[in-house]
C-alpha cells in the first residue's frame, strides 16, 4: 500500500460519490430546515453503502461471480424504477400543493427511501470491488473506507447546498428534487444498459 493507492482510492471516492451528491442536494432541497443530526445520518448512510459495496464486489469476485453476473443486468432497471417512483412522488406532491390553497406539505425522507437511495447510488461501487481481484482483503477494506469517508464529506456538502437553495426556492424545491432523482435514475439506467 503506497501513496498512489490512497490517491486512487480518494479519486474513486469522488467519482463514485457523484450520484449520492446529487441525491443529497435533492434531499436538502426537499427539506431546507433539516436538522444537523438528520443530515449526518443521510450522509452516513450514503458513505456506509459506498464503503460496503466495494467489499461486496471483492467478495463476489472471489466467491460468487456467476451469481452476480445474473443479477448485474437487473441493477440499472432497479435504479431507474426506484428513483423514478420517488422522484415522481415528489413532482406529484409539488403539483398537488400548487393547486391547493393549503400550506404545502413536505415530502420528508423516510428510512426506507434513504436505504433505497443508498443502494441505488452505490451500485457503481460494486465495480471497484470487482476490479480488485488481485488485491488482498485488507487493501480492499482500506480503499472502501476511504471511498466511504469521501462520500460522507461530499454528501454533507450536497445536503448543505440543497438546503440553501431549498430555502431560497422553497416553492419549487420539491419539483427540482423530483426531477433530479428521475434524472439520476435515467443516468444510471443508460450507463448500465448502453455502456
Quaternary structure annotation: single chain
Give the biggest sheet.
none
CA-based gyration radius: 18 Å
The run of helices and strands is HHHHHHHHH
Helix count equals: 9
> What overall geometry do the principal axes of the alpha carbons give?
globular
How helical, in percent, are the residues?
A: over 70%
Tell me, rounded to a whole number, the average pLDDT. 81
Q: Strand-residue fraction?
A: under 5%
Query: Can you count the beta strands?
Result: 0
**Main structural class:** mainly alpha
Q: Any low-confidence stretches, pLDDT <50, length ≥5?
A: none
* N-end to C-end Cα span: 31 Å
Secondary structure topology:
Layout (H helix, E strand, L loop, with lengths): L2 H14 L1 H13 L5 H28 L1 H8 L2 H25 L11 H12 L2 H6 L6 H32 L1 H25 L1
Helix pairs in contact: 1-8, 2-8, 2-9, 3-6, 3-8, 5-6, 5-9, 8-9
Short description:
Helix content is 84%, strand content 0%. It is mostly helical.
Description:
This protein is mostly helical. 84% of the residues lie in helices and 0% in strands. The chain contains 9 helices and no strands. It has helices spanning 3-16, 18-30, 36-63, 65-72, 75-99, 111-122, 125-130, 137-168, 170-194. Helix 2 (18-30) packs parallel to helix 8. It is globular. The mean pLDDT is 81.
List keywords for this structure.
195 residues, mainly alpha, 0% strand
Amino acid at each position: 500500500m503506497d501513496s498512489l493507492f490512497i490517491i486512487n482510492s480518494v479519486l474513486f471516492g469522488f467519482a463514485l460519490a457523484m450520484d449520492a451528491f446529487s441525491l443529497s442536494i435533492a434531499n436538502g432541497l426537499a427539506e431546507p430546515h433539516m436538522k444537523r443530526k438528520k443530515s449526518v445520518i443521510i450522509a452516513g448512510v450514503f458513505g456506509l453503502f459506498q464503503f460496503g459495496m466495494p467489499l461486496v464486489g471483492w467478495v463476489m469476485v472471489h466467491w460468487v461471480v456467476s451469481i452476480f453476473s445474473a443479477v448485474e443486468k437487473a441493477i440499472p432497471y432497479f435504479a431507474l424504477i426506484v428513483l423514478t417512483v420517488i422522484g415522481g412522488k415528489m413532482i406529484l406532491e409539488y403539483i398537488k400543493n400548487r393547486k391547493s390553497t393549503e400550506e404545502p406539505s413536505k415530502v420528508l425522507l423516510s428510512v426506507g427511501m434513504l436505504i433505497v437511495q443508498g443502494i441505488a447510488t452505490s451500485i457503481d461501487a460494486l465495480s471497484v470491488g470487482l476490479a480488485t481481484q488481485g488485491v488482498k482483503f485488507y487493501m480492499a477494506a482500506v480503499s472502501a473506507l476511504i471511498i466511504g469517508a469521501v462520500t460522507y464529506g461530499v454528501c454533507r456538502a450536497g445536503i448543505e447546498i440543497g438546503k440553501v437553495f431549498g430555502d431560497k426556492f422553497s416553492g419549487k424545491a420539491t419539483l427540482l428534487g423530483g426531477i433530479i432523482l428521475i434524472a439520476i435514475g435515467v443516468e444510471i439506467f443508460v450507463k448500465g444498459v448502453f455502456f
